[in-house]
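It is worth pausing here to work through a concrete case rather than discussing structure prediction in the abstract. The textbook approach is simple: state the sequence, then state the predicted structure, then interpret. We follow exactly that order.
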Amino acid sequence: MTEQASNGAAQGEQAAQFSLQRIYVRDLSFEAPKSPEIFRQEWAPNVSMDLNTRQKALEGDFYEVVLTVSVTVKTGEEVAFIAEVQQAGIFLIKGLDAAAMSHTLGAFCPNILFPYAREALDNLVTRGSFPALMLSPVNFDALYAQELQRMQQAGEATSH
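Step two, the predicted structure:
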């Protein structure tokens, strides 16, 4: 009986674990370079969004993932505003192989962080007296797969 219990404990130690520890804003910026003149123009927004993620191993099995979302909105040729947020999270992750860890840090964690970043950006924009900015959801799994494919192709190109 004791042997079975200790085997179960040993197997449990190797089981994958994932736990969100903290979500926070690391950096936040908003710029409306043409205010107040921009408010007198017809509002015909052209929105461009850039995404970036980075990860950092912390002590133990803790990792910080930072999702940076930058939005530039132009009306005509004029920049109406530029808004950026670095939404971060600390995650406890253990028991994953290298491929699963890479996917978790590169796609799963950013999926968790994006709604918070989206809300922070929307709040910034409305405080700047612009219409609400409702960013579409992002498929981080697809972006991660594209990045893996790009890296594989780059690796093949350098090996020839």
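Step three, interpretation. The longest strand covers residues 78-94. Confidence is low (pLDDT under 50) at residues 5-12.
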